[in-house]
Amino acid sequence: MLITAALRDKLQEHGVATEFGHDFHLPDQSSFEPPCSLKRMQAVFSLEMGAFSFARSGYYFGVKIGRYTSIDDDVQSGRGSHPVSWSTTSPLFYQGHRHVFNQPVEAAETFRTNAPPQKAKVTVIGNDVRIGYGALVAQGVTIGDGAIIQPCAVVTKDVPPYAIVAGNPGVITGMRFPPIIAARMQALAWWRYAFWDLSGAPVTEPEAFLDFVHRAADAGIAPHEPAAITLSTLT
């Protein structure tokens, strides 16, 4: 869908910010939890973004992003791969010439193939994930909550929660927290709450932060539950 200046203003009014100074496109299948920011990201096929997340720039194909996730510039996420075990890697044999050339080729109109069509897989990026500059995340991968993907890493496999991944191919180089802290983070799911309701939380001390959020939850703090913003609701 073409996002015009008028539609950009509507997104902004509903808490979905961008940094585009011109018209751009978003997938018809787009859904956002405000507040969040698209900044200058290029998205195709489908996109979901949770509250308090942003992606600076890059390419995103069929991506679901959780809350409080920070994605740096020039990240590539959800790009597909070509079949390497077939006779050829050319998509002309399974996507068709019209898809590849964006125009009909008369001589190829009668071409038939027995190759199965390649199905798109959704890439899932969890809550409180950090993805550094220039990283590549393969289509269909799941990145667990709290994980860190270092700049220029190439992620071809699922990443466990709170793992730190670096290199090409990406490998786990460490964990953010000891297992007991990581388990508490996921059990509490602190990202359910708006950061403004966690004023004063000791963010530099993970255990004290967890204790703070736990007490706030026991005191009745309400989860942040905004209505989802879809393009169809704005047009």
In CATH's first tier, which class of the largest domain applies? Mainly Beta
Terminal residue distance: 10 Å
- Kindly name the structural category: alpha/beta
How many DSSP H or I helices?
A: 5
**Oligomeric state as shown:** single chain
Strand content: 25-35%
- The CATH architecture of the largest domain can be named as 3 Solenoid
> What is the domain total for the residues?
2
Radius of gyration: 20 Å
The H/E string reads EHEEEEEEEEHEEEEEEEEHHEH
3D structure, described in words:
This protein has 235 residues and is of the alpha/beta class. The protein folds into 2 domains: 2-80 and 120-234, UDP N-Acetylglucosamine Acyltransferase, domain 1, CATH 2.160.10; 84-118, no CATH class. It has 5 helices and 18 strands. It has helices at 5-13, 97-101, 179-188, 206-218, 231-234, and strands spanning 2-3, 16-18, 24-25, 29-32, 36-49, 54-55, 57-65, 70-71, 75-79, 123-125, 130-131, 136-138, 142-143, 148-149, 154-155, 163-166, 171-175, 229-230. Strands 2, 4, 5, 7, 9, 10, 12, 13, 15 and 18 form a 10-stranded mixed sheet that branches. Helix 3 (179-188) packs parallel to helix 4. It is globular.
Topology:
Layout: E1 2-3, H1 5-13, E2 16-18, E3 24-25, E4 29-32, E5 36-49, E6 54-55, E7 57-65, E8 70-71, E9 75-79, H2 97-101, E10 123-125, E11 130-131, E12 136-138, E13 142-143, E14 148-149, E15 154-155, E16 163-166, E17 171-175, H3 179-188, H4 206-218, E18 229-230, H5 231-234
Parallel strand pairs: 2-5, 4-5, 5-7, 6-8, 7-9, 7-10, 8-11, 9-12, 10-13, 11-14, 12-15, 14-16
Antiparallel strand pairs: 1-3, 4-18, 16-17
Helix pairs in contact: 3-4
